[in-house]
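Technical annex, item 7. During the second reporting period the consortium partners agreed on a shared format for inverse folding records so that results from different sites could be compared directly. Each record opens with the tokenized structure and is followed by the designed sequence. A conforming record, contributed by the partner at site C, is shown below for reference.
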């Protein structure tokens, strides 16, 4: 049965990495990761975004990973990343993936081309014709090379498929939250606490790969008005989050998950593993987070 078009994306949605081993997707690790994040309280998974190396993964590989994760009867809802330069190619991919009835698609503007706002509107409208599933706008100028204006986002929000945006600029995120014309999902991991304290409903934070249960608890404390407790819990995560983005994403996240014994430390070329120096810094930062968690529990 089709989901209502105006799906509400609440809670922490994780833009999950694509685990790899020996040049192939590690389907066993993908299933184990999905279970791990479900048990940690994550609301849903976003597959094949930039953190998931989506542009380096073929369509047959994507289908294998979707089927592996969805085979769990208790699987989390899935959003699929659908980015690309060619609008027709993105729409074709969406039509092919629609049979898996995702909770939605995360769609950035066409990157590299630098289209006008009118061109961005056209791109999204064509993709909306390809599916009845919800579409989450993804405003990420650093990667797309173009910025969607608030007016463009709100024009799309008037259409049935569009009800949310992943916004990576904290000031724009704040403006969208104040205007309340569409749900703004926090895409800047360091702004997550302020977002939830200001009444934000959802986030897609890549840093939540590491200690996901703490991100869920920060969100719950903030939502329940326990601002100081939320700040105390979030503060040790800030330094770790900065390290997780200090080299090209998702290399630091994959190194951290490798250090936890969850996946192999492998990316698809031209993406390269994190440096040895960063690995040592990550290990120290993760130790500090664990120490702070123990201290908060005994306080």
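Designed sequence (site C submission):
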């Amino acid at each position: 049965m089709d989901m209502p078009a105006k799906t509400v994306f609440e809670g922490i949605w994780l833009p999950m990495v694509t685990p790899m081993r020996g040049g192939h997707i590690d389907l066993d690790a993908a299933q184990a990761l999905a279970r791990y994040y479900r048990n940690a309280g994550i609301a849903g998974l976003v597959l094949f975004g930039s953190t998931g190396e989506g542009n380096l993964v073929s369509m047959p590989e994507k289908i294998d990973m979707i089927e592996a994760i969805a085979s769990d009867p208790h699987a989390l809802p899935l959003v699929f990343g659908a980015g690309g330069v060619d609008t027709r190619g993105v729409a074709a991919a969406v039509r092919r993936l629609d049979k898996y009835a995702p909770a939605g698609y995360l769609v950035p503007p066409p990157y590299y081309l630098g289209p006008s706002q009118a061109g961005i509107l056209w791109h999204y409208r064509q993709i909306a014709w390809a599916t009845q599933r919800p579409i989450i706008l993804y405003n990420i100028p650093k990667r797309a090379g173009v910025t969607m204006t608030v007016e463009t986002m709100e024009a799309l929000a008037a259409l049935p498929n569009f009800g949310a945006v992943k916004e990576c600029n904290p000031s724009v995120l704040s403006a969208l939250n104040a205007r309340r014309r569409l749900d703004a999902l926090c895409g800047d991991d360091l702004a997550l606490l302020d977002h939830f304290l200001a009444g934000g409903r959802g986030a897609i934070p890549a840093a939540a790969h590491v200690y996901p249960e703490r991100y869920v608890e920060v969100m719950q404390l903030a939502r329940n008005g326990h601002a100081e407790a939320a700040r105390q819990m979030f503060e040790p995560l800030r330094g770790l989050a900065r390290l997780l983005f200090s080299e090209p994403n998702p290399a630091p996240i994959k190194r951290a998950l490798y250090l936890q014994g969850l996946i192999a430390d492998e990316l698809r070329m031209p993406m390269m593993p994190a440096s040895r120096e960063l690995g040592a810094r990550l290990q120290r930062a993760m130790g500090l987070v664990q120490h702070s968690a123990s201290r908060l529990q005994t306080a």
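Residues 276-298 form the longest helix (23 residues). Residues 1-5 have pLDDT under 50 and may be disordered. All partners now use this format for quarterly exchanges.
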